[in-house]
Amino acid sequence: MKNSTKKLIQSILIFIVTVIIGFSITLISFNLFDTLTANQMRILFAADVIILLFIGTIAWFMYESTKSAGRKNCKSKEKINNKTNKTNNSFDFSNFAA
């Protein structure tokens, strides 16, 4: 339960930060619409897209790193289980009479 709550809070925080930054960048560009030239608006739009892509990439890398850590943990548990099963299967229990 703790882990799912932590993931939920983390996801909500990432969403809030992304929305706030995206909204503020868009707000700035609309407020400067009358004062900037066409080339300056294109530069501002390109910067807006680059910043939003950068934030999205960071969120994606965070998601993938937690996903790969989970896979790594499962693989290590599987190795331990395989070694334990191999050891148990190779042990001869016929010497022990009940």
What does this structure look like?
The chain has two helices and no strands. Helix content is 85%, strand content 0%. The longest helix has 53 residues.
Helix content: over 70%
Structural class label:
mainly alpha
The N- and C-terminal alpha carbons lie at a distance of: 45 Å
The whole-angstrom Rg is: 27 Å
Average pLDDT score: 78
Beta-strand residue percentage: under 5%
Main beta sheet:
none
Q: How many beta strands in the DSSP annotation?
A: 0
Low-confidence stretches: none
- The coarse overall form would be rod-shaped
- H/E element order: HH
Count every helix, treating DSSP H or I runs of 4 or more residues as helices: 2
Topology, please?
Blueprint: H1 2-31, H2 38-90
Features:
98 residues, mainly alpha, rod-shaped
Summarize the structure.
The chain is mostly helical. It has helices spanning 2-31, 38-90.
